[in-house]
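Batch job 17 of 40 flagged for manual review because the log was empty.
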Amino acid sequence: MKTPQDPPRNPLQRRDILKTLGLGAAGAAVATVLPSGEEAQAMESPQEQVKARYRETEHVKRFYALNRL
């Protein structure tokens, strides 16, 4: 009686996986070295930065009144 043999391995599959991992690692290394650019700056004038933003209008007061615990 013959013993079952292992299916032949395809060396291309292993090579493809190793190539993909190598390229991914190289891409990650390049991404960490490249400059990330400038930080975004606020487009508000100094007057807009200090003005009051929160207004307790009637609908806000109603919301607070309805949601009291």
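Reviewer: the log was empty due to a logging misconfiguration, but the result itself is present. Residues 11-33 form the longest helix (23 residues). Unflagging and moving on to job 18.
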